[in-house]
């Protein structure tokens, strides 16, 4: 069902356009400013018309046209049709659907106070289309008015959702564009409604807005049921056979297919979390209820009650698991709208597809032809570049080319997400269920690939799923972006390579500090803060500051593969690993999956593969030498494919000359490495406080770069004036759009708990302010109040509370910290984290001296913070140097020995333990640790054959923290110099966290890692052995328990 909204500026002389799309393919027309008289309303014989004429006036007029097979009536509004307000409300019955279309025109701006009660009075779905003539940052304007502020306040507190908030709909004769024509619908149907703005204005100064309501029948819900026990047992048999990797993946795929059942549930509007258990228990509940009522049977009634209780349990469990996953998805703020689409599409996956695709002015309806068109489009311009002679220098870098270790495979599997598998159907869950024996087999297969440098063809094949871009015409191929599904086997192997490459790049300092992204400790906050400090320094020294933002056209898809490998060799990535990368990137293929059809296979000869784990870090390598293009005095910052070049100086001519020389060097560099920069999408701006005497003309490839009032870098708008105000306006408009979209699930009966909606608010809306906390912490109190208003507005939607609820009560119910206070706290944590990262942080050097000059307000804030805490930088837990090469100094055994199986009887465990110690650790100094926690205190204890200790620590510490602190204290007090050390502990979680140490690990684990690095000098070898569940079986529990009764204390 399609609607077209259009301010036509006189429809009588534009009747010819009604015979072409989108008008000819739309069932409903909603026109404003028709300029028609009463006798003129016969435009098309296939429509019924409802209209309002402007008697005695030259302009105006509203028209709503519905199909002939639909019925409708005009709803009396009770409003007088004055010069500034025309409203036409039509109630429509069409194909068993009942809804209302409101057509309005307010040339001087809509006063929502006059009509809001009328809009809110309907209980059925409502569409509101019209020319509102309001400006607000919510839909991209740079200004607002009291009328628009009132309208936005009503919209946020109503059950309506704004559909179009990005593309302009009005083009003025001066060339400026703005969004004046708004489309609004009820939140209850917003999940099935899509809209976009037409590319053509059809001889008007307003562009038509096309709205599609996908009223699809509920398709049968399909649920996969996997017999994991049989899958893993059969897989173990396959892995033990001496099979080549190509045949191995085929056999495992067959095992998974043979043990997978697709159970189809009847077509119904199921909740998104509905699973097979819920369905089966619901059927049993209904069955025994009917039997009990028919036979008057007490036993059947008892069974009905039993299955009803089980149904409630499984509904609660399924709902909570589903919304926990949704909240995890929204931890990445960019996944907010993807999360909404995932919820919307649970009843019918076809909601994001269309039956017609426009190609060469013809509509294609065949799914196979459509999939082939997509395949041709996504593989277009895939021409192989000329090869470069390469010498891989196989033995030049031993660390990058050492044999693959079992622990590397485990870590790679743990980091692999449970996403949709590739063409082979092997999921990440399969890898995570493998036993140690199976993992050893997988490691040997990976080692074979690494040694031979032969990449299986399945690893180089991608299944592409086209996903529509928001607010785009779905009938056009370029309105879709590709999502690649690749082999999980390949992803695990790529993660092993990435870990080695990342370690090499950082330890050898191969990547310049100005290149950020996809590397540890180089996040977008650091990139943004560097620009911010450079601008502030230019302001303080009264310098000119000119910034240029460069846009690389199809950055990943146009990477010169041989040139990339050549750069990898220059960065010291040599040997077999480089040969593997080269083979992996060459001769790739793709197929497109569209409407249950697969296209033909298409070759891809250039570019980095979509969906590949290795692509981001290789792109960083490709841009690593970009600094060679910079003239002296010009600086830059790169994050992924976003490039920002800037120069500050007291003389404007000096800046102009330097930037022009840099642009010429960039052009030569791009030509040499086969990259393209789009000058029309680049921007240049003056960000200084000084007034420019003249506008410098900076040219790239013969095209002058366009000057802008603001320049955007990593989501932050930098401006010459009112910097904080511009940043706040940009963040606020994004937050308002997300609050607007949040209503679509907050008002639906999808089962989200209040806690889930609050988590989504924190992860997706409030996080917009957290992202740039190192900048937003300098907001004024008035701007902080605006931030707090956004937070309370979002929480009211999440909690379903009215707008008159006091903010204090609202925050107490939600259990949330005030946004402005949290911004300040996160900003302090940002700078403290740089101190903790020490030598690895681009902001601080090894002596904690800032290498990037901090803004004075940040320096004062840090000094005051340390003064209030009565501490210094010496007490910050430093991040350990985890980037050291793997060595045999520290080994962790979680379940490698036979005595670590707690299923054995106690006497057998004790005998097995003594046997292992005698055979493997005879010359080791043995230490055992333990910790316990009660409601009143927490105790830690350690014992060896020479001495022991026991302390009580603050009861606020968790048992996890206590176990880690016990090990720290053990290394300080009980370790022996120049001997091997065997440390026994029953804390599996601490050893697992230490084994998978990352930047995001708990601070107490960082402290423990730091202790280990210090002890590396004094201890020959350190071995950790987990005794989870068997501590008491070998006598350690009794020894440490007697020690913990002591009343000694240590403060943590």
From TrEMBL:
InterPro entries recorded: DNA/RNA_pol_sf (IPR043502), Endo/exonu/phosph_ase_sf (IPR036691), Endo/exonuclease/phosphatase (IPR005135), Rev_trsase/Diguanyl_cyclase (IPR043128), RT_dom (IPR000477)
Q: Which PROSITE patterns match?
A: RT_POL
User: Taking every annotated instance into account, which residue ranges of this chain make up the domain Reverse transcriptase?
Assistant: 448-718
**Classification via Pfam families:** Exo_endo_phos_2, RVT_1
GO molecular function terms noted in the UniProt entry: RNA-directed DNA polymerase activity
Keyword Ion transport part of the UniProt annotation: no
**Which keywords label this protein?**
Nucleotidyltransferase, RNA-directed DNA polymerase, Transferase
Question: In which organism is this protein found?
Answer: Araneus ventricosus
Protein name (Swiss-Prot/TrEMBL):
Putative RNA-directed DNA polymerase from transposon X-element
């Amino acid at each position: 069902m399609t609607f077209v909204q259009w301010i036509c500026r006189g429809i009588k002389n534009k009747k010819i356009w009604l015979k072409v799309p989108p008008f000819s393919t739309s069932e409903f027309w909603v026109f404003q400013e028709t300029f028609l008289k009463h006798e003129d309303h016969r435009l098309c014989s296939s429509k019924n018309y409802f209209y309002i004429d402007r008697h005695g006036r030259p302009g105006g007029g509203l028209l709503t046209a519905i199909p002939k097979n639909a019925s409708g009536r005009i709803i009396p509004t009770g409003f007088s049709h004055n010069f500034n307000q025309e409203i036409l409300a039509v109630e429509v019955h069409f194909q068993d659907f009942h809804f209302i279309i409101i057509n309005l025109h307010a040339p001087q701006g809509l006063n929502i106070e006059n009509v809001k009660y009328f809009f809110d009075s309907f209980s059925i779905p409502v569409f509101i289309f019209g020319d509102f003539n309001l400006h607000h940052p919510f839909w991209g304007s740079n200004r607002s008015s009291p009328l628009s502020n009132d309208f936005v306040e009503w919209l946020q507190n109503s059950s309506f959702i704004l559909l179009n908030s990005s593309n302009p709909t009005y083009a003025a004769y001066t060339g400026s564009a703005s969004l004046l024509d708004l489309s609004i619908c009820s939140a209850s149907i917003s999940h099935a409604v899509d809209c976009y703005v037409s590319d053509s204005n059809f001889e008007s100064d307003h562009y038509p807005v096309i709205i599609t309501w996908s009223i699809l029948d509920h398709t049968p819900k399909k649920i996969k049921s996997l017999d994991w026990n049989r899958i893993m047992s059969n897989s173990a048999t396959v892995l033990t056979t001496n099979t080549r990797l190509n045949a191995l993946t085929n056999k495992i795929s067959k095992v998974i297919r043979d043990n997978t059942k697709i159970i189809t549930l009847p077509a119904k509007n199921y909740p998104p979390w509905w699973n097979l258990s819920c369905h089966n228990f619901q059927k049993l509940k209904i069955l025994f209820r009917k039997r009990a009522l028919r036979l008057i049977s007490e036993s059947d009634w008892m069974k009905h009650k039993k299955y009803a209780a089980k149904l409630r349990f499984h509904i609660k469990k399924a709902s909570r698991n589903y919304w926990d996953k949704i909240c995890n998805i929204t931890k990445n703020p960019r996944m907010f709208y993807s999360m909404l689409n995932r919820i919307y599409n649970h009843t019918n996956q076809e909601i994001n597809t269309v039956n017609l695709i426009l190609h060469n002015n013809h509509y294609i309806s065949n799914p196979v032809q459509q999939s082939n068109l997509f395949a041709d489009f996504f593989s277009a311009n895939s021409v192989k570049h000329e090869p470069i002679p390469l010498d891989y220098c196989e033995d030049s870098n031993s660390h990058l080319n050492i044999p693959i270790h079992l622990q590397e495979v485990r870590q790679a599997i743990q980091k692999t997400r449970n996403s949709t598998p590739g063409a082979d159907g092997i999921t990440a869950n399969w890898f995570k269920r493998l036993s140690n024996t199976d993992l050893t087999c997988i490691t040997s297969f990976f080692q074979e690939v690494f040694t031979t440098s032969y990449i299986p063809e399945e690893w180089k094949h991608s299944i592409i799923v086209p996903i529509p871009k928001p607010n785009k015409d779905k009938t056009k191929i370029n309105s879709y972006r590709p999502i690649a599904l690749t082999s999980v086997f390949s992803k695990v192997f790529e993660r092993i390579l990435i870990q080695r490459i990342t370690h090499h790049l950082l330890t050898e300092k191969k990547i310049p500090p100005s290149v950020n992204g996809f590397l540890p400790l180089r996040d977008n906050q650091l990139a943004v803060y560097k620009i911010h400090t450079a601008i502030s320094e230019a302001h303080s020294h009264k310098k000119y500051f000119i910034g240029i933002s460069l846009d690389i056209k199809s950055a990943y898809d146009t990477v010169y593969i041989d040139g990339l490998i050549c750069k990898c060799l220059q960065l010291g990535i040599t040997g077999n690993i480089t040969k593997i990368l080269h083979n992996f990137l060459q001769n790739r293929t793709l197929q497109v999956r569209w409407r249950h059809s697969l296209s033909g296979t298409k070759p891809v000869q250039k570019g980095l593969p979509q969906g590949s784990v290795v692509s981001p870090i290789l792109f960083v390598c490709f841009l690593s030498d970009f600094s060679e293009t910079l003239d002296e005095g010009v600086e830059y910052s790169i994050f992924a494919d976003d490039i920002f070049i800037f120069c500050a100086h007291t003389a404007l001519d000096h800046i102009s000359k330097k930037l022009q020389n840099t642009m010429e060097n960039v052009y030569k560099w791009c030509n040499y490495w086969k990259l393209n920069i789009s000058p029309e999408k680049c921007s240049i701006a003056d960000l200084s406080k000084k007034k420019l005497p003249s506008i410098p003309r900076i040219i790239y490839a013969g095209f002058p770069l366009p000057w802008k009032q603001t320049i955007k870098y990593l989501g932050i708008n930098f401006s010459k004036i009112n910097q904080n105000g511009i940043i706040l306006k940009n963040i606020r408009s994004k937050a308002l759009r997300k609050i607007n979209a949040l209503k679509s699930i907050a008002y639906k009966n999808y089962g989200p708990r209040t806690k889930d909606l609050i988590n989504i608010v924190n992860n997706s809306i409030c996080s917009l302010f957290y992202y740039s906390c190192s900048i937003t912490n300098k907001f004024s109190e008035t701007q902080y109040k605006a931030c707090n208003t956004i937070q309370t507005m979002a929480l009211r939607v999440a909690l379903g509370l009215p707008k008159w609820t006091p903010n204090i009560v609202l925050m107490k119910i939600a259990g949330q910290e005030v946004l402005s206070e949290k911004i300040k706290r996160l900003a302090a944590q940002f700078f403290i984290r740089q101190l903790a990262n020490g030598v690895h942080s681009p902001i601080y050097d090894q002596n904690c001296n800032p290498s990037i000059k901090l803004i004075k307000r940040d320096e004062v804030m840090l000094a005051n913070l340390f003064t209030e805490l009565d501490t210094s930088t010496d007490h910050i837990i430093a991040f350990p140097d985890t980037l050291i090469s793997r060595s045999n100094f520290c080994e962790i055994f979680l379940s490698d020995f036979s005595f670590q199986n707690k299923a054995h009887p106690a006497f057998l465990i004790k005998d097995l333990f003594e046997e292992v110690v005698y055979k493997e650790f005879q010359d080791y100094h043995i230490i055992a640790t333990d910790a316990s926690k009660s409601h009143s205190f927490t105790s830690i204890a350690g014992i060896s054959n020479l001495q022991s200790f026991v302390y009580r620590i603050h009861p606020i510490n968790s048992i996890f923290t206590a176990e880690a602190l016990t090990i720290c204290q053990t290394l300080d007090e009980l370790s022996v110099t120049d001997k091997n050390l065997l440390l026994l502990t029953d804390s599996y979680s601490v050893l697992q966290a230490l084994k998978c140490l990352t930047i995001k690990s708990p601070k107490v684990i960082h402290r423990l890692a730091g202790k280990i690095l210090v002890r590396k000098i004094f201890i020959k070898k350190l071995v950790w052995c987990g005794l989870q569940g068997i501590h008491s079986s070998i006598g350690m529990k009794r020894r440490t328990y007697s020690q913990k009764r002591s009343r000694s204390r240590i403060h943590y």
